[in-house]
Amino acid sequence: MTLAQKIEERFFKVLMILATYFILFILAIIIYSIFEKGVKSISWEMLTQIPKGGYYYGKDGGILNAILGSLSLATGATVLAFLIGLPVALYINVFLIRNKKLVNVIRFLLDLVWGIPSIVYGAFGFMLMIFFGIQTSLLAGILTVTLFILPIMIRSMDEILRTVPIGLMEAAYSLGSNKSETAFKIFTRQSISGIITAVLLSFGRAIGDAASVLFTAGYTDNLPNSLMEPVATLPLSIFFQLSSPVPEVQNRAYASALVLTLIILIVSLFSRGIGKRYHKTKINF
Amino acid sequence: MSDNAKISIRDLNVYAGKSQILKDVNIEIPKNKITVILGPSGCGKTTLLKCLNRLTDLYPELRVTGEIMIDDNNILQAREDIYKLRQQMGLLSQRPYPLPMTIYNNIAYALKLRGIKKRREIQKLALHYLQQASLWDEVRTRLREPASRLSIGQQQRLCLARGLAVNPEIILADEPTSALDPISSQFIEETFLKLKNEYTIVLVTHVLRQAKRIADNVVFMYLGEVIEQGSVEEVFGNPRMEKTKQYLGGTFN
Question: Exposed (0-12), middle (13-18) or buried (19+): which is A171, by Cβ within 10 Å?
């Protein structure tokens, strides 16, 4: 190795190390500040009560409305997006295998809509609501968030399904499997842990987004009780509390962020557990 | 088609875009014999096998013309259920691709595709095919384990058992021992010799010694063309074509 090569290697190694630790450092600060400020003002009362009159000026109450609202909204949207997304991803990878041009167009379009900011989905959802005469509600929120996470769900599943080896596909067909058997029994099984990860990723996006639910799900201090009523969500709850002039309420915003982070953490650990369970049967190549 | 021919390939041409992979291939494959397709890498052996069970359908860039008669049925024209057609053939690929499920379910999956639904019968037949592929003794206590935990040699025999489970008449094998250790390879070869009474076997290989050991018939291919075909004695003992002599003599270039 010449001196120039040595210097080059050393330079890029240091660059990679710096970049990695810089990112980790920033992430650590974010998580630290959420915990530091959140833990102080989190309380049992906050987790189990709905906001009482004057909550946003420092009076009693909690964010149970937002916790349950976010959970029901994100769960509904994730389930719906999964039911639509898995067939689409399988269709692209199993049925459209002879039409590579169309597949490329579909992938390109999905990547394009992935990049559209969620506020645009919110506005689009709002437009549809006016058209169909629906008011801000859990249902409208679920449908809008479903649209918003669908490209994420489909493309993440798609990337996993693409890694299914051609030899495995040929093996499935050579046994006489038809396309739907190959799709649902072979491709899905082989990719199950990746599919679970895709669902989790989408759930995280669904529960963490504020802009898409702003006009569509609305906000309320009540617990969610009907698909046709508005619901509160954690991101909007954080926003409203942070906008309060009262420092105590601002700290509660961090407590709410902590709750949101913990929900995502729990779902993540849970799905990893499931993924590992299924990983055993996966064939490694 | 001669009387004992199981498969008769006539004027088969395969094109990939502008290049031609197979050129005017004519081959007679006799019933209940091992026919070895021999030739250097890239001579179109694998493509030929894929034509036989219409896996070529999966590749839009391939264009296939000609006739492949199996029992007087031109499978390239077949309008009927192509999935059923593929069950006439068991495929063994270069490296094993077990299905992402348990050892037992690999066989059960194939049996269910064949239309067998009763659990009892599935169990009975799974045992039968695992024995036929000389694998039963090694897996009898671990049927519920994922197939991925088997060694490569065992996986290949599992794939053979799975291929037999759809009740084919023909076994297509594409260099099935190239990824295996010598002992596993020997297992597969011995199994083939046992199976040829019931099945017509088409084996693709570039290993001369393997061809000598188990072939009844030999087809020698080079650059997409059939150079010479005949019984193993004819082709190995007294090759007519210059190319064949060179290949067998190892002076090929």
Answer: buried
Task: Dump pLDDT digits (tens) for A219-260.
Answer: 999 899 899 999 999 999 999 999 988 888 888 999 999 999
Q: Does B87 touch chain A (CB under 8 A)?
A: yes
To 10 degrees, what angle do helices A192-208 and A138-161 make?
150
> A185 contacts in B (CB within 8 Å)?
109
Pick the CATH number of A55-279 from 3.40.50.2300, 1.10.3720.10, 2.40.128.20, 2.30.29.30: 1.10.3720.10
Of the candidates B83, B91, B64, B62, the residue with the CA atom closest to the CA atom of residue B156: B91
Give the global pTM: 0.87
Whether complex ipTM tops 0.85 = yes
Chain B residues with CB-CB distance to A173 below 8 A:
55, 58, 83, 86
Q: What is the pLDDT of residues B106-151, one digit of tens each?
A: 999 999 999 999 999 999 999 999 999 989 999 999 999 999 999 9
Question: What are the C-alpha distances in Å from B117 to residues B111, B125, B142?
Answer: 8, 12, 23
Which among A139, A137, A155 is positioned nearest to A76, based on CA atoms?
A139
Q: CB distance from B78 to chain A under 8 Å?
A: no
Q: What is the pLDDT of residues B36-47, one digit of tens each?
A: 999 888 888 899
Evaluate whether B164 touches B87 at the Cβ level (below 8 Å): no
Longest CA span, chain A: 73
Tell me the domain boundaries of chain B.
99-167
| Beta partners for residue B30, in sequence order | B5
DSSP B146: B
